[in-house]
């Protein structure tokens, strides 16, 4: 059914085809599709979902790189095992391998501190600020436009963050058409309460990743703490549990095929409104190129880890992230090719432009759309080099730390509002935390090998993509590269945490005088990085200015087709709804929507990644499923499938039933729909969730924690 709705507060009313299986909806949109929600099976008041300060949405949090939810009045948070994997790895060492063995805190005192840069954020405000953000930008172009938007956003954020423990940001909706000020409470003291062993939390590892049927118990429970005064604080034994404004209630009944389900979370990014040229670039260059580069990095870490267990533990979280990213990109590439996405998008865009030519504003919008296309084409000129630089900054520890310390020395003398985003006073605590945690995630041999892999790739690029500064630091030949890295990593003192903290706190002048080899390298690279920043801002400024014309045309065209229009995901809180749904994957291949512990036994080989722990196998053999089994079949559920619209960032998102009770925890998508971040296909799009009955059973019967079950409001079965 189609209904009329005001989208994003705009004056234009849009026709929304609110199909239950599509849409990452802004909460403010939900009252406008209330009838659809009710018809799908929702029993609550959709108006409650529009208010971020009320239950249940104020119990949904952004944590780590994903989503989580409060599940007790004393600050317990449930999220995915893989979202909290960095916390587990941070607390592991060869003689206490929590990755392999899991962890059950014996009491509050036994809850283990997360890595210092791990954060939890609760959204407490979401206000439209488009006019304020764009006021000074109008009439400007390029970098001037970017700088005006940036300055206005920083001013809004600075005013917003005057409260204790508040973290704010400005979210861009519809690619520069609208802007929202997001206000979040940020908690910095998170502690590990309960984590299943790797062979439960990540059962099947990369073989099963993005695959259905699935049998992973991908969950972890943490607790949020605040200072004695109730305000956000760094870790301290004196801190006390945070008391959230609300928490979700765990359902005691499970789900069955056809049941209504709803999900709230922080999806990272989708690209469904991108141009046909960007679709082509993603398929023809970006995905295959990034997969190749990331596989080389994966090989480096695995090779080093085979001969050095401690190095393997230090890089376990990074390796897991690489493997997940590689498989996702491979699945996305396969899915987009299978759906002929480039041709489909080109035909769709051509039809949109033909429609636009007949509209009253078509002649005014078309020149701006043409400029968008030209800017996108220009981005190809340096994309290989830009990829190497991005990976150099994201896949290293000490190199990244040196670049951060050097950039801080440039930014600190400036007025705070003039400092680069990411290097303002508000960002320094996070930078400090990242510099601290490097101690448990760094090995000089591994980092040298990672940098070698990336820079050998750079050295093969055409001369036009080379940067003199990069050539000076790393050389132009493999022999020069090896010599440079031996010298830099052989003499740097940044491997010592105290030295990193000293330089972090040092004056810009003192940092500038340092002769540490890594800092000298960062200082040498600085002019090139600043130059590239300016070029990027000029391009992004023009895209921010011009893309709204493309979006205006696309929204108008979609409206004429009666199709759903919602913003691409951008890490802001979204809601999707649907049903527990089977999957018809291909001819004669149909999957049921629920798996059971029988599948764990069937897959078990005794060897990773199908090496189910003995306590789990013993408990399954006992068939003691009372209070948890499916009432119709008597089987013990593990995971279930729905048609909820999800993407990366939705990991850990709570899945609720029609009454708003927690029945599942989102953790993956199926292989057939990995490409849904670019192109949505309701035939194949499914989301994979941990059944909360399985989580409760594990906590009760396999790795018991009666106190935890009691706090969760679901005491152990008798």
How would you characterize the overall build of this protein?
The protein is of the alpha+beta class and 718 residues long. It contains 26 helices and 22 strands. The model is unreliable at 1-20 (pLDDT under 50). Helix 9 (276-307) runs antiparallel to helix 17, helix 13 packs antiparallel against helix 22 (517-561) and helix 14 packs antiparallel against helix 17 (444-459). The longest helix is centred in the last third of the chain and has 45 residues, at 517-561. The strands form 4 sheets. Strands 3, 4, 5, 6, 7, 8, 9, 10, 11, 12 and 13 form an 11-stranded antiparallel beta sheet that branches. Helices cover 44% and strands 16% of the residues.
Which structural traits does this protein have?
single chain; 718 residues; alpha+beta; 7-stranded antiparallel β-sheet; disordered N terminus
Question: Which stretches are low in confidence, meaning pLDDT under 50 for 5 or more residues running?
Answer: 1-20
Which of globular, elongated, flat, extended, rod-shaped describes the shape?
globular
What's the total count of β strands? 22
Structural class: alpha+beta
Strand fraction equals 15-25%
Helix percentage: 40-55%
Radius of gyration: 25 Å
Distance between the termini: 47 Å
- Largest sheet: number of strands, sense, barrel closure: 11 strands, antiparallel
What integer is the average pLDDT?
A: 94
């Amino acid at each position: 059914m189609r209904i009329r709705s005001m989208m994003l507060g705009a004056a234009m009313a849009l026709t929304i085809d609110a199909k239950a299986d599509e849409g990452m909806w802004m909460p403010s949109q939900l009252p406008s599709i209330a009838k659809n929600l009710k018809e799908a099976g929702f029993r609550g008041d959709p108006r409650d979902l529009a208010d971020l300060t009320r239950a249940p949405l104020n119990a949904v949090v952004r944590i780590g790189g994903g989503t989580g939810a409060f599940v007790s009045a004393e600050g317990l948070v449930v999220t995915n095992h893989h979202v909290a994997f960095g916390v587990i790895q941070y607390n592991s060492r060869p003689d206490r391998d929590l990755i392999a063995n899991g962890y059950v805190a014996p009491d509050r005192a036994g809850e283990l501190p997360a890595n210092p840069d791990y954060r939890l954020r609760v959204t407490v405000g979401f206000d439209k600020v488009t006019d304020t953000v764009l006021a000074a930008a109008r009439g400007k172009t390029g970098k001037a436009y970017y700088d005006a938007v940036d300055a206005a956003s920083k001013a809004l954020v600075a005013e917003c963050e005057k409260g204790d423990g508040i973290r704010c940001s400005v979210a861009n909706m519809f690619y520069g058409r609208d802007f929202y000020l997001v206000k979040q409470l940020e908690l910095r003291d998170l502690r590990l309460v309960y984590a299943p062993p790797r062979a439960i939390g990540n059962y099947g590892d990369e073989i099963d990743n993005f695959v259905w049927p699935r049998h992973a118990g991908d969950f972890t429970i943490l607790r949020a703490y605040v200072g004695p005064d109730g305000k956000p604080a760094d870790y301290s034994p004196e801190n006390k549990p945070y008391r959230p404004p609300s928490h979700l209630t765990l359902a005691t009944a499970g789900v069955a095929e056809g049941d209504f389900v709803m999900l709230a979370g922080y999806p990272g990014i989708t690209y469904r409104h991108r141009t046909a040229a960007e679709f082509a670039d993603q398929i023809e260059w970006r995905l295959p190129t990034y997969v190749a580069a990331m596989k080389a990095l994966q090989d480096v870490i695995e090779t080093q880890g085979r001969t050095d267990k401690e190095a393997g533990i230090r890089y376990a979280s990074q390796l897991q992230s690489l493997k997940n990213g590689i498989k996702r990109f491979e699945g996305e590439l396969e899915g987009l090719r299978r759906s002929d996405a480039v041709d489909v998008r080109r035909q769709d865009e051509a039809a949109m432009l033909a429609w636009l030519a007949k509209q009253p504003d078509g002649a005014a919008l078309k020149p701006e759309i043409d400029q968008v296309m030209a800017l996108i084409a220009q981005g190809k000129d340096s994309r290989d080099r830009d990829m190497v630089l991005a990976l150099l900054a994201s896949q290293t520890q000490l190199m990244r730390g040196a670049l951060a310390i050097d950039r801080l020395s440039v930014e600190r003398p400036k007025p705070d509002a003039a400092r680069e985003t990411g290097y303002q006073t508000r960002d320094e605590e996070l930078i400090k935390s990242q510099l601290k945690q490097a101690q448990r995630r760094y090995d000089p041999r591994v980092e040298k090998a990672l940098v070698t892999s990336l820079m050998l790739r750079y050295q093969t690029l055409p001369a036009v993509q080379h940067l003199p500064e990069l050539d000076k630091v790393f050389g132009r030949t493999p022999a020069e590269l090896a010599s440079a890295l031996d010298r830099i990593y052989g003499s740097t003192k940044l491997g010592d945490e105290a030295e990193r903290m000293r330089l972090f706190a040092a004056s810009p002048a003192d940092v500038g005088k340092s002769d540490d080899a890594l800092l000298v390298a960062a200082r040498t690279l600085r002019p090139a990085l600043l130059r590239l920043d300016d070029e990027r801002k000029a391009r992004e400024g023009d895209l921010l200015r011009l893309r709204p014309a493309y979006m205006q045309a696309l929204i108008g065209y979609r409206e004429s087709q009666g199709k759903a229009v919602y913003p691409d995901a951008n890490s802001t809180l979204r809601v999707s709804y649907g049903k527990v749904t089977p999957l018809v994957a291909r001819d004669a291949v149909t999957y049921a929507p629920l798996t059971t512990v029988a599948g764990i036994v069937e897959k078990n080989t005794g060897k990773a990644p199908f090496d189910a722990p003995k306590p789990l196998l013993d408990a399954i053999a006992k068939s003691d499923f009372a209070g948890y089994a499916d009432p119709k079949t008597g089987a013990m559920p593990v995971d279930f499938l729905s048609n909820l619209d999800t993407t990366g960032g939705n990991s850990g998102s709570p899945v609720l039933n029609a009454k708003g009770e927690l029945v599942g925890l989102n953790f993956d998508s199926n292989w057939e729909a990995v490409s849904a971040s670019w192109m949505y296909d309701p035939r194949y799009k499914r989301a994979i969730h941990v059944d909360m009955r399985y989580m409760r059973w594990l906590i009760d019967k396999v790795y018991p924690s009666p106190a935890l079950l009691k706090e969760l409001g679901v005491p152990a079965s008798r």
